[in-house]
Amino acid sequence: MAVGTIAIVILTYTMDTLAKEAPMSRRRQIYEGKAKVLFEGPEPGTIVQYFKDDATAFNNKKRGTITGKGVLNNRISEYLMTRLSEIGIPTHFVRRLNMREQLVKKVEIIPIEIVVRNVAAGSFSDRFGLAEGSPLPRSIVEYYYKSDELGDPMVLEEHITAFGWATPQELDEMLSMSIRINDFLTGLFFALGIKLIDFKLEFGRLYEGEEVRVVLADEISPDNCRLWDVKTNEKLDKDRFRRDLDRVEEAYQEVARRLGILPEGGPRDLQGPDTIQ
Predict the structure, then answer these.
(1) What's the pLDDT score for residue 7?
(2) Does 30 map to a domain?
(3) 105-116: pLDDT as tens digits
(4) What is the rounded distance in angstroms from the CA atom of residue 161 to the CA atom of residue 220?
(5) Domain CATH number, residue 20
(6) d(Cα 183, Cα 171) in Å, to the nearest integer?
(7) Burial class (CB in 10 A: 0-12, 13-18, 19+), 103
(8) For 209-246, what is each residue's pLDDT tens digit?
(9) How far apart are CA 18 and CA 40, in angstroms?
């Protein structure tokens, strides 16, 4: 290996190590969730979002680690948030800071998860007795109340507005954006040979002076999207972890590769020197 190449590898490994270790010592932790840690941002109104390799399923009943997931989800979410912003979807994303961190605007998360379904899969198939992979007559939007203690129950619009989780206007904005996001991502992924089966979105209130806007928050990645290969129906998402399938890490890497944010060369471990900046 050439001296220059060795230097690049060492630098890349050092940067990834710092990205994993530095947050705890350099800024105050605000919150730790299943897949991310939030830290105080460098500027007022900002937060640093750190992506972990931790993986959970079935309301935290199953736990594990997907090697390099945090690095990949950071890159994938950055790419998709940027593309959505280009078509006029407001998001909390500001910029990626390093391999595992991105700077986002501080928002008040609306406690509703919006799930858009294009094809029957997972719990939807079980609920309605549909074979997994059955196409739906049209895209179906569902609402879930964000509560780990209650198991994120499915709710109706009446519940959301009656309990004050979101106003009717906010709900309309979230629904409108979710449909636009689905249309855009379905086309984007299909061009890459991937079917967007379903996905989960979260939104937040962004306070800017006297104004309040609803913006897309959290992340968009194989953690919260079901992605299948168009030709083979091979799963390229967290279902591989949920169902104890092999090659979980490679599935995430394959999505990144098709998006053009991972170099050609096949599945690789993204924990250290092979990670790209």
Answers:
(1) 38
(2) yes
(3) 999 999 999 999
(4) 26
(5) 3.30.200.20
(6) 18
(7) middle
(8) 899 999 999 999 999 999 999 999 999 999 999 999 99
(9) 17
Q: Which residue has the tokens 């994120």?
A: 152
Asked whether residue 192 falls in the same domain as residue 81, the answer is: no
Give CA–CA dist 274/269, Å, rounded.
7
Output the six-digit token pair for 216.
């897309």
Quick count: other Cβ atoms within 10 Å of Cβ 194?
23
Q: Dump pLDDT digits (tens) for 9-51.
A: 333 344 444 444 444 446 899 999 999 999 999 999 999 999 9
Kindly write down the DSSP assignment for every residue of 234-245, as one continuous string.
Answer: -B-STHHHHTT-
Of 101, 49, 99, give the one whose Cα is nearest residue 272. 99
The number of domains in the chain is 2
Virtual CA dihedral for 57, 59, 65, 67, nearest 10 degrees?
A: 60
| 267 belongs to a structural domain | no
Distance CA 30, CA 40 (A): 6
Clarify whether residues 97 and 120 are in a common domain.
Answer: no
CB atoms < 10 A from the CB of 253, how many?
Answer: 24
If we measure between CA atoms, which residue out of 141, 224, 137 comes closest to residue 180? Answer: 141
pTM of the model: 0.85
